[in-house]
Amino acid sequence: LKEEGLKVAVSHRGYKGAYENMTKLISDEDHLFEDARNAGDEPLLIAQNLKGIPVIVGKNRKKAIEFLEENVRPDAIILDDSFQHLKVRHDYDFLLFNGENPIGNGFLTPAGMLREPKSAMKYADCFVLNDISGEVSIPKIFKKYSTPLFTTSYHIAHFIHYSDLGKSEPSPFVRKKIYLLSGIGNPSSFERSITELGLSFVHHYQFADHHEFSENDIASILRRAKNQNIDAIITTEKDFVKLQKLDIAKELIYYAKLHVKINEMDTFNGIVGTLKKEIGT
């Protein structure tokens, strides 16, 4: 949308961040603000990757939107994780699914993985199957609807060392002794991305999604790494954001920089064109 000449902003709840119960702008069109590190791992990651796009944090989306309209005046506001947030009117809903297991057991959390009943799919304007690997067969439930659908694939573009001294291609890690470290919702996807590069790992230290790493967590892993002569500890970019806050030894730690490929670009470009047209009217 920005490339199409539109002014865009992002609203994020900031789950478990210091500003979840506030309305806080953490970046604008020119800067990532100093206190953005307190916003939570996901909004900080979004702000770091979407340079030039304002990001606001706060679970009260209505207040966040009002702030953006008064102070930023965007043409479009993208709300992360907001399909079930009914206090705000949505003009267009992208409904995202885990490509490996889109519906799970069909139950709502905590019994299953769904945040809304399957019947709510009829309210979506577009379905997105995320992180598809290889040939994919679209589940029957999606074929019940005429809703546009596109899929994405993830792969690791390169690794970046904790010291941020530059990028490392995957090849130097072949035949090295590696630990994986993550606190994400789908750790198997991370493992698959690593093994697709021809890399193997000694152990994957898995923590719950949104886990706040402590210095003791990392110190314990580093001790084991030393005992096993581990060459590198590879984590996700999302987890790396949290590790940056800690006073820990950094020599072994790298994060994987993901590249996201949209597989049906014609469908995606058609949606962007439609949105641009609607925003302009």
Structural account:
This protein has 281 residues and is α/β, with parallel strands linked by helices. Among the domains are: 1-86, no CATH class; 156-259, Rossmann fold. It contains seven helices and twelve strands. It has helices spanning 41-49, 61-71, 140-143, 187-195, 215-227, 237-243, 265-280, and strands at residues 8-12, 24-27, 55-57, 76-79, 94-98, 126-130, 149-161, 167-168, 178-182, 203-206, 232-236, 253-262. Helix 1 packs across helix 6. The longest helix is centred in the last third of the chain and has 16 residues, at 265-280. The protein starts with 7 loop residues before the first strand and ends with a helix.
Name a few traits of the molecule.
eight-stranded mixed β-sheet; Rossmann fold; alpha/beta; 281 residues
Distance between the termini: 15 Å
What is the CATH level 1 assignment of the domain at 156-259? Alpha Beta
Tell me the radius of gyration. Answer: 20 Å
Structural class: alpha/beta
Strand composition percent: 15-25%
Would you tell me the overall average pLDDT?
92
Beta strand count: 12
Q: What is the annotated CATH architecture of the domain at 156-259?
A: 3-Layer(aba) Sandwich
Task: Provide a concise account of the structure shown.
This protein is α/β, with parallel strands linked by helices. It contains 7 helices and 12 strands.
